[in-house]
Amino acid sequence: MAKEEDPKLYLVRAKLYRFTSLLFITIGIFVFCVLYVKYIDGRLLESLKSPYTIFYFLVPFAPGAVLTILADRAEKKYRSLTEKK
Question: What's the rounded Cα separation, in Å, for the pair 30 and 34?
């Protein structure tokens, strides 16, 4: 038996994912600033030689990016289900 999907569920998920992604991006900016001041502190060209620099730039924003992708997928699913009805 095929279970009918509720579009409201995808709308709620999309809104929840979008809110939490903005929260994680805000936290990521704060963490990035702390890591920048602690480890790089104006020595950007010198610190680009270190592989940890990628960690300082990308990792604080990874949870926000993943949640943004999930929110986009949920919004697309919501739009496709509402267009069917």
Answer: 6
Distance (Å, whole) CA 14 – CA 71? 4
pTM above 0.90, yes or no: no
Q: Domain residues of the chain, as ranges?
A: 7-84
pLDDT tens digits, residue range 28-46? 999 988 888 888 887 878 8
Distance between CA 47 and CA 65 in Å, rounded?
A: 24
For tokens 């020595």, name the residue: 43
Sorted by sequence, the CB contacts under 8 Å of residue 56 that are 6+ apart come out as 32, 35, 36, 39, 40
Rounded distance, CA 57 to CA 12, Å? Answer: 31
